[in-house]
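look at this record:
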Amino acid sequence: MRGRNDAGQSKRPIVLCCMMIVCLCLLFLYFSGSNGQAKSTALEYGTKFSRTLGWGSDDGEDGPEESIFGTGDADDIKPKSFPVCDDRHSELIPCLDRNLIYQMRLKLDLNLMEHYERHCPPPERRFNCLIPPPHGYKVPIKWPKSRDVVWKANIPHTHLAKEKSDQNWMVEAGEKIKFPGGGTHFHHGADKYISSIANMLNFKDNNINNEGMLRTVLDVGCGVASFGGYLLSSNVIAMSLAPNDVHQNQIQFALERGIPAYLGVLGTKRLPYPSRSFELAHCSRCRIDWLQRDGILLLELDRLLRPGGYFAYSSPEAYAQDEEDLRIWKEMSALVERMCWKIAEKRNQTVIWVKPLNNDCYRRRALGTKPPLCKSGDDPDSVWGVPMEACITPYPEQMHRDGGTGLVPWPARLTTPPPRLADLYVTADTFEKDTEMWQQRVENYWSLLGPKVKPDTIRNIMDMKANFGSFAAALKDKDVWVMNVVPHDGPSTLKIIYDRGLIGSNHDWCEAFSTYPRTYDLLHAWTVFSDLDKRGCSAEDLLLEMDRILRPTGFIIVRDKSIVIEFIKKYLHALHWEAITVVDAEPNPESEENEMILIIRKKLWLPEASSHDSTT
């Protein structure tokens, strides 16, 4: 027995060694085979590169030890040619993809609209392919004509034209779709409806901008955004908001028309906008139950409205006499009264409430009145993924004493240092220098774009890291609008952007943006990739996302370190992009490393075209 045991023990190391050698051989064969495998299919999820680096990684806040861009050597990364996604993904919105919800079996409360909120795919489920334009796609019609007409081939959906035919939302007209300017509540035109709201508020000359004091508007349940589109002629800019619901493509139509819009819903999370951002909120038959969950959705609007801000509500409850509408009106009136809102005017089918200018009314309420005031530790500007709360956001003490925002009228508001700079410990001098610096930078950008850009070439612009919004401010004389994106984990500068009379959203560039494919003419990425490097997210995934949201023939301006520029240049061919120019940026005394500017144009390619060099 003893001899046998000794022999067995002596054989075990040999067996283990053999097993290890076999495993190593199998691993070698697997990896060498995978390096030589055929090109990825159009439906493949993720990539080895993106799975290694992740796209939503929260690990390692201090960043990876090595740059995701390598060392800058020519052989660092071997770019690939990306497959084209299947046609059924031509309108893919990765974080608002209902197919993903079904596939991942997410347990969501439909009554709370959770299925219309953002649910992003994990890295291994992200599509590693280029989103194709629909068959017959054409370069979009230019602004301002686009407000009233678009190519049907670009958004081949006409169900809204049939469903809303009696409301003048949109009308089929051969190869085009026309927008007469109507809506569910304003069949005879948004312009007349807007003038009627201004008249109800006794604004001079029935002009909704109130001599420059009303500038930013939130239009909830906006449809195809004709309300926001017709506000623009009055120097008023609206964030037109709607979910990707049964009226699919309404936000896609809005952006195709050149009207500012965003895919979002009043559900369980705060909207990605800071507190006290809008002078007016608007809901025209938006089918929202404002009484649910102790009025939490109405309280979210309250958070977003400035002191003295208005809520214009056009809905059956405001005028109908049946029992159910009367009940809703009674309960809603009681709720807004407890919120210290007052009726500014009620006429025909519309009621307009006004929010108080200071905290006096809140302080006079009886103890225990609901909704309560939010806790003192609540940050009303913390919004990314933050649940709504059924509480009233009181004004900061300074704003309470001032009895308002202290903002000057538009257009002086654009360049005047706003009072909330003090919240960020930023001086007026720093703000003014930033404005001047970006004015010079934007002038340089346009000189580099040169003959490629005509006055009507660009309409929809996204500044992917907007800081104080000075890039957008420098474009004030051009017929464009800018979606100013502020990183969710940085300083709360988005409120400064709104205080300048501009609009924007918080976002995390480790995830996809809430918009349809092909919705922006120009993307400006200032150190966005360098910031991504610090978090260890995938730069390749970001390039694919930028390609998704950029229109064919659109432009990208990348301002970043040289290693980033060299990294992106390796992907130009694979993405069907072409470099317009690469130059050294102006010296920046605040930066340790000099920046470079890369200007790119996306080629127009169609699914049926076999060549990467389709007509541009």
User: Anything to note?
Assistant: The radius of gyration is 27 Å. The longest strand covers residues 550-561. Residues 2-35 form the longest helix (34 residues).
